[in-house]
Automatic annotation (TrEMBL):
InterPro entries: Ig-like_CS_Receptor, Ig-like_dom, Ig-like_dom_sf, Ig-like_fold, Ig_C1-set, Ig_sub, Ig_V-set. Residues 139-160 are annotated as: Disordered. Gene3D superfamilies: Immunoglobulins. It comes from the Eukaryota. The chain crosses the membrane at residues 404-431. It comes from Geospiza parvula (Small tree-finch). The keyword Signal applies. Keywords: Disulfide bond, Glycoprotein, Immunoglobulin domain, Membrane, Signal, Transmembrane, Transmembrane helix. SUPFAM superfamilies: Immunoglobulin. The keyword Signal applies. Residues 1-26 form the signal peptide. This is Uncharacterized protein.
């Protein structure tokens, strides 16, 4: 009896350790909640997926992790103990004790599935055990078809001959896809498309149309319709900008042609100045922006010389969705100079005249080109530039106004001289007449 009495306290102690009575840990877990509010999420391949998970309350020690799938085939997507910097999964709020939202970059069709946010606690054996999990988020990933490729017969065909044309595309999800064939813009019949599963949960498609050729046949096209694609095709919206505008004379002005929201990506841009082609450059390849649509910027630089003031700079756009279209802007020069001298220097009948270096108005003083500045005999007094041979002047260059003034002054002077001559003759006659009378 003494032996049994001695062993009872030891046995009770072991039972207390193994069978922990409800206490602090049990009460701490009762008010713990885990919310995973997104039942379903749909994204496009290449985008970033955001999965939300918020916790509140207190639970025992242990991590919060993300799993893809449930049961024996599940896969750990996020583990706080995994510090791999190359992982494409990251916490939205690093270090938070309540926000366990994650971002998954560059999602692909193979990332489709149901994701669970799970709270673990350490068990008696030291291993992590599931304490609470979210309701799960079902993720679907849409992948756009590759640009359709239409191939015709391998050999030259003759009129009235029936030949196959095939349209192929691939890498899309979901499986459903529609194909429409057109001959010279008119709808035509075709065989049902053949859709086959490819790698990474994506699909390929092939469609064949049998065409009886006729004289004048020139164009055939296959149009695709898919959930991840815009309705094929989409014409661009175009805007032409000039920077700066207006521009100072002899400065460079940049014209930008901005093409927005078009599909497919293939597009041609060319530049014209007053109808004549000039060389421009695309700043980048067509950039995919959203909903499968593309954007492109093309640019050309123009030297703003005076004679180009008011010139029309045109961006010509060629795209499958529309006929070739032009969009224009005008080159404006701020405060262009009023004239200048020309490349020609002409003297006419003894009167000096400036032509061709421009029309200088308002009494301005200008300089001729370098080739007219060689030190030769003769000069223009008051203008300060040498004269080309063989002319020589000693007076400033007259204009139409000065010619008229000189003529008037000459007539006035001649009138004065004539008046004084007549008066002198009259006085001389009277003097002679009075002298004869006196004698």
């Amino acid at each position: 009896m003494v032996l049994v009495a001695q062993e009872l306290p030891l046995m009770c102690l072991m039972l207390l350790l193994l069978c922990r009575e409800p206490g602090v840990d049990a009460q701490a877990g009762q008010d713990f909640t885990l919310q995973q509010p997104q039942p379903k999420v749909a994204v496009t391949a290449g985008e970033t997926l955001t999965l939300n998970c918020i916790t509140s309350g207190v639970a025992g020690p242990g991590p919060v992790m993300w799993l893809k799938g449930w049961g024996s085939g599940n896969k750990t997507v996020y583990d706080p103990n995994n510090k791999d910097p190359s992982s494409h999964v990251m916490r939205a709020v690093p270090g938070s004790d309540t926000n366990f939202t994650i971002h998954i970059r560059n999602v692909q069709p193979e990332d489709m599935g149901t994701y669970y946010c799970v709270k673990f606690v350490r068990g008696i054996t030291g291993a992590d055990e599931v304490f609470k999990r979210g309701d799960g988020t079902e993720v679907s990933v849409q992948a756009k078809p590759s640009p359709p490729l239409v191939s015709g017969p391998q050999q030259r065909a003759r009129p009235e001959e029936s030949v196959p044309f095939t349209c192929t595309t691939g890498g899309f999800f979901p499986e459903k896809i529609e194909v429409k064939w057109f001959k010279n813009k008119n709808p035509m019949g075709a065989q049902p498309p053949q859709v086959t599963e490819w790698r990474m949960k994506t699909y390929n498609m092939s469609s064949t149309a049998q065409v009886t050729l006729q004289k004048g046949d020139a164009l055939r096209a296959a149009h695709l319709k898919h959930r991840a694609l815009p309705l094929f095709p989409v014409p661009p919206s175009v805007e032409v900008r000039a920077e700066p505008s207006p521009v100072e004379v002899n400065k460079t002005v940049a014209f930008t042609c901005l093409l927005k929201e078009f599909y497919p990506a293939k597009v041609s841009v060319s530049w014209l100045e007053n109808g004549a082609e000039i060389k421009g450059q695309n700043l980048s390849r067509p950039l995919e922006v959203s909903r499968g649509l593309f954007e492109l910027r093309s640019r050309v630089e123009v030297q703003a010389t005076e004679e180009k003031n008011g010139s029309t700079i045109t961006c010509m756009v060629v795209h499958d969705a529309q006929a070739p279209a032009t969009y224009s802007a005008v080159l404006w020069i701020s405060n262009p100079t009023q004239g200048g001298l020309s490349n020609e220097f002409q003297m006419n009948k003894g009167a000096s005249e400036l032509r061709g270096w421009g029309a200088c108005q308002g009494g301005c003083v200008v300089s001729p080109p370098e080739e007219a500045r060689s030190p030769r005999k003769g000069s223009l007094r008051g203008v300060g530039m040498p004269l080309p041979e063989p002319w020589s002047l000693t007076s400033s260059v007259p204009t139409a106004g000065t010619n008229l003034l000189s003529s008037l002054l000459l007539l006035l002077w001649m009138g004065i001289l004539l008046e004084k001559g007549l008066l002198g003759a009259l006085l001389f006659f009277l003097f002679k007449h009075m002298k004869r009378k006196a004698s």
